[in-house]
């Protein structure tokens, strides 16, 4: 990729005390180029890649200060894929889960930077800082495979121009719905590597609590909650009936209808369980201050994953600790390349609505394909 002359912008970047260097600013989005910036010490790098005409994906790379140079064991890079679809890896995964700073902008003792470089992306396009230029121009992806194609284009842009990154194995790590993106990306990336279009080493894929088999999830909810005394017999009967309906819809490839039935099932379970929290059954939704996913109507159910993670804080909205506020405030000022008239997450609802037809599609076969190709694959699941 050819770049224009580098501009040096002096001063503090959003109060983080680092000077930033920039290549072409975001006013060049109408051309097929990448644009971005890096800290002066090279510890952070971020930017946009136009993965398709008028579709811009944002990424943020952290280089670890714990890096150990060992030719026999190259330092890894972790690509974090958030769920949703529509959950921001750059925001939620970074500041709420594994990045160097938490949502209060304090150092995180358990950051994964201790063991790897971290690459966060806002995927699919429309998530977080990623955006399409025209929301009415059919630019949002509709399938996991389309999302994987965009991610592959992003990786080609980032890795093919950086020989240093090419030396490190890339591990794709995903959470929740992100697991479906991870397995489709794994296959797409392997194809691009074999064709000589992508210069990276795929180290492996890790799937955490992932939505790769929606049928198995919905069939388990009723019996599990009955065993925990969160559902009575009437609630169990209604939950199981809807779960069986979903099973049949999936087997008949009626995925959009299955998505509607899934939302209905969450509503039934919420009503009969006194609003159990779907992401931690030890809690009641809306009762505990760290669990704010109440009223799982159809529309809210479809956003409950992102709502759950983005609400894991006890401070009221508007200050440090409120993710939306910091992403549209101090973080946006630090990054400097986010379009001034664009807010973090403003297109996220569009992401889910366009993917409703693929939301309940299983991706078990893709897991088998990765294993057959010899990919190191880990699947883990846990409650807390």
UniProtKB/TrEMBL annotation:
Pfam family, one: Peptidase_S10
MF GO annotations: serine-type carboxypeptidase activity
Assigned GO CC terms: extracellular region
Keywords: Carboxypeptidase, Glycoprotein, Hydrolase, Protease, Secreted, Signal
Catalytic activity, EC: 3.4.16.-
Protein's cellular compartments: Secreted
GO biological process, one term: proteolysis
Coiled coil: none
Family under the similarity heading: Belongs to the peptidase S10 family.
The protein's name in its UniProt record: Carboxypeptidase
Source organism per UniProt: Dovyalis caffra
């Amino acid at each position: 990729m050819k770049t224009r002359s580098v501009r040096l912008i002096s001063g503090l970047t959003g109060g983080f005390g680092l000077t930033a260097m920039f290549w072409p600013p975001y006013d060049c989005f109408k051309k097929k180029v990448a644009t971005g910036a890096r800290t002066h010490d090279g510890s952070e790098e971020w930017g946009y890649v136009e993965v398709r005409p008028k579709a811009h994906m944002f990424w943020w790379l952290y280089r670890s200060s714990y890096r150990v140079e060992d030719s026999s064991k190259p330092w890894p890079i972790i690509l974090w894929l958030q769920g949703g679809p529509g959950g921001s890896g750059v925001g939620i995964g970074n500041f709420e889960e594994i990045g160097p700073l938490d949502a209060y902008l304090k150092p995180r003792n358990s950051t994964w930077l201790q063991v790897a470089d971290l690459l966060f992306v806002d995927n699919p396009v429309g998530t977080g800082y990623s955006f399409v230029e025209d929301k009415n121009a059919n630019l949002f992806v509709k399938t996991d495979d389309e999302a994987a194609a965009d991610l592959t284009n992003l990786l080609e842009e980032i890795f093919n121009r950086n020989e240093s990154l090419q030396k490190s194995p890339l591990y794709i790590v995903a959470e929740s719905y992100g697991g479906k993106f991870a397995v489709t990306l794994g296959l797409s990336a392997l194809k691009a590597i074999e064709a000589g279009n992508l210069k990276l080493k795929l180290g492996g894929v890790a799937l955490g609590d992932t939505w790769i088999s929606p049928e198995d999830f919905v069939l388990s909810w009723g019996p599990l909650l009955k065993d925990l005394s969160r559902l009575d017999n009437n609630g169990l009967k209604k939950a199981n009936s809807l779960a069986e309906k979903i099973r049949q819809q999936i087997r008949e490839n009626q995925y959009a209808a299955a998505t509607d039935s899934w939302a209905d099932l969450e509503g039934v379970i919420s009503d009969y369980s006194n609003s159990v929290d779907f992401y931690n059954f030890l809690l009641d939704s809306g009762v505990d201050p760290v669990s704010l996913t109440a009223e799982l109507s159809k529309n809210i159910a479809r956003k409950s994953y992102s709502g759950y993670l983005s609400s894991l804080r006890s401070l009221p909205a508007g200050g440090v600790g409120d993710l939306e506020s910091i992403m549209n405030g101090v973080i946006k000022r630090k990054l400097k390349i986010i379009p001034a008239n664009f807010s973090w997450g403003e297109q996220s609802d569009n992401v889910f609505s366009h993917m409703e037809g693929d939301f309940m599609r299983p991706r078990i076969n893709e897991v088998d394909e990765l294993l057959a190709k010899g990919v190191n694959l880990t699947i883990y699941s846990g409650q807390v």
